[in-house]
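QA checklist item 7 of 12: single-chain prediction sanity check.
[x] sequence parsed
[x] length recorded as 174
[x] structure emitted
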Amino acid sequence: MKRTPRPQRLSGQVTTLQRGFTLLEAMVAAGVLSIGLLGLAGLSGISLGKNVDANDMTRVTNIAADMAERIQSNRQRVLEYHNTATGAACPQNVSTQRMALGDCTQWQTLVASSGLTGANAAVAVARLDPDPTTTPVTMNRFLVTITVTWQTQKTDVSTARTKTAVLTTIVAPE
């Protein structure tokens, strides 16, 4: 028969026997804690990857918005921006389309210095309404599509891939 220790009285006080954690309980607690910490480490890696993607998307949005604003400020000559691309020479004529040519050159420099890997951008312009020279009653609107393509970098949690962002807007001369 096993005896259980009884509380002893010492000078009018009752003392109880206290027992601590066993080695097994400490190992289980350490295991649970390590699983939780590993989960947090995995989430921080994913979070870092998403932060890089968001930074790239901010740069791309600024690049596309920059060209859209340039076209808006030269809205009388929207068609001159058609087929503007960063991977080719500017299609504008220096004698007749000086502002569009300057915008193309500056935009190519902006895309090249954006810090995006393999960045390419292009502008396409399409007429939405009939040409005002053939139909006098027209709104003379243009659909402007700006496409930016870049390569993401390989990280611990993601692979390198090509991403594309497209900004479309309608421009109408005043």
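[x] summary fact logged: Residues 57-171 form one domain.
[ ] second reviewer sign-off
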